[in-house]
Amino acid sequence: MTKNEGTLDRALRVIVGLALLSLVFVGPQTLWGLIGIVPLATGLVGTCPIYSVLGISTCSIKG
Questions:
Q1: Do 38 and 14 contact (CB within 8 A), yes or no?
Q2: Separation of alpha carbons 46 and 39, rounded Å
Q3: pTM of whole model > 0.90?
Q4: Residue 3 has what DSSP assignment?
Q5: DSSP code of 43?
Q6: Among 7, 10, 51, 16, which Cα is nearest to 37's?
Q7: In angstroms, how far is the first alpha carbon of the chain from the final one?
Q8: Is the pLDDT of residue 63 over 80?
Q9: Of 7, 14, 39, 43, which sits most exposed with the smallest number of CB within 10 A?
Q10: Could you give the CA distance from residue 5 to residue 52 in angstroms, rounded to a whole number?
Q11: Number of structural domains found in the chain
Q12: Radius of gyration (C-alpha) of the chain in whole angstroms
């Protein structure tokens, strides 16, 4: 899988993923916070399956 996320995109995904995941432990303590696993995982890996399907890339390095 080629990377299709730029540095800013990846950083924002990790931050949003951690924020959503924290909802499982603090705040409303709802399992909806588990949705945060998706942006966290894609941010750590650097590849977004939806970007691949749509042909989008925020990564400046072509590879």
A1: no
A2: 10
A3: no
A4: -
A5: H
A6: 16
A7: 10
A8: no
A9: 7
A10: 10
A11: 1
A12: 13
Is residue 31 in a domain?
yes
21 neighbors 38 (Cβ within 8 angstroms): no
Q: Give kind and range of the element (H or E) at residue 14.
A: helix 7-22
Per residue in 15-48, pLDDT tens?
999 999 999 999 888 888 999 999 999 999 999 9
Does residue 13 fall inside a structural domain?
Answer: yes
Whole-angstrom distance, CA of residue 1 vs CA of residue 28 = 36
Q: Copy the structure tokens of residue 59.
A: 């990564």
Cβ–Cβ under 8 Å, residues 48 and 18: no
Between CA 56 and CA 36 the distance in angstroms is: 22
Please check whether residue 40 lies inside any domain of the structure.
yes
**11 assigned to some structural domain:** yes
d(CA 53, CA 25): 33
